[in-house]
Amino acid sequence: MGKKRFSVAVAVTFLSLVHIVVSVPFIMLHGISAECSDHTNSNFPRLLSNLSGSRGSCVEIGNGKSDSWLMPLTKQVEIVCDKVKQMKELRLGYNIVARSQGNLVARGLIEFCDDGPPVYNYVSLAGPHAGESSVPFCGDHLAPSGYIKIPTDIPEYMKSSKYLPKLNNEIPNERNSTYKERFTRLKNLVLIMFQNDTVIVPKESSWFGFYQDGNYTSQPPLLSPQQTKLYTEDWIGLKTLDVAGKVKFVSLPGGHLQIATTDVIKYVVPYL
Ligand SMILES: *[C@@H]1O[C@H](CO)[C@@H](O)[C@H](O)[C@H]1NC(C)=O
Ligand SMILES: *[C@@H]1O[C@H](CO)[C@@H](O)[C@H](O)[C@H]1NC(C)=O
Ligand SMILES: *[C@@H]1O[C@H](CO)[C@@H](O)[C@H](O)[C@H]1NC(C)=O
Ligand SMILES: *[C@@H]1O[C@H](CO)[C@@H](O)[C@H](O)[C@H]1NC(C)=O
């Protein structure tokens, strides 16, 4: 090897080392019926690392697959909050990528985790942010009971649901401005919706869109994110972030979580 080529190689190696050392790390949170060790959830963070040059890994909660079904979301957030506080590499801050139900854990981590390291960018893939109105996900004892929201029975939801009303600061006398303050600190919020998603119902919930509130007998009209009260009254700071140009509403072809690598490069990697 010539002297010149050798120094170029040294410089390139040095620069990639510097990049790894100074780049912000990320964590990934998987969805329901999944675990960090399965094929998809072990490969996806590796793909993200490969493409971005940032370190990152899937963070497991409890025993993975069965806890993703059985453990209440409040408890899942407590666990992941403790975990990120113990991860020294996240001390100066980190980014989050979350899949499906993992987004409700991610948002809990951002809003509820006292004294946790700062979260900079948050990329949400198919998160049921405004609720899930699909009936197959029933059963009071299951994690999804924390975000089931049947549009024809909002009063019951406000009274009984244990997780989403709190996460979304929906209950008039129980709104906590700390949650909003923390969520508003994000530098970027990327909300990815899949056009053929039949798991998140309505799929627009991935953008914080949902059916209009009330006690209707048939399905109420669907509201865009900007038409919801969560947005107009800015319960969690979504409007503040949007007005500041920090929210990216991304709509991709394909079914639930079916993201093409070209779209990963375009919409996820720039935030890692
Ligand atoms: C990531 O890069 C490593 C090393 O180049 C490669 O072996 C691996 O297959 C890649 N993984 C993914 C998921 O892209
Ligand atoms: C709001 O949340 C913060 C952070 O968890 C907590 O310290 C505070 O006590 C809460 N305030 C109210 C009024 O519940
Ligand atoms: C529900 O419907 C009843 C009868 O139509 C009405 O009196 C009541 O105000 C409604 N409640 C809500 C929360 O919309
Ligand atoms: C989305 O669904 C439509 C209607 O079922 C279908 O024609 C189209 O091929 C689907 N697109 C993708 C990318 O899955």
Automatic annotation (TrEMBL):
Keywords: Hydrolase, Signal. GO terms for molecular function: thiolester hydrolase activity. The keyword Ribonucleoprotein does not apply. Residues 1-23 form the signal peptide. The keyword Protein transport does not apply. SUPFAM superfamilies: alpha/beta-Hydrolases (SSF53474). InterPro entries: AB_hydrolase_fold (IPR029058). It comes from the Eukaryota. This is Palmitoyl-protein thioesterase. It comes from Arabidopsis arenosa.
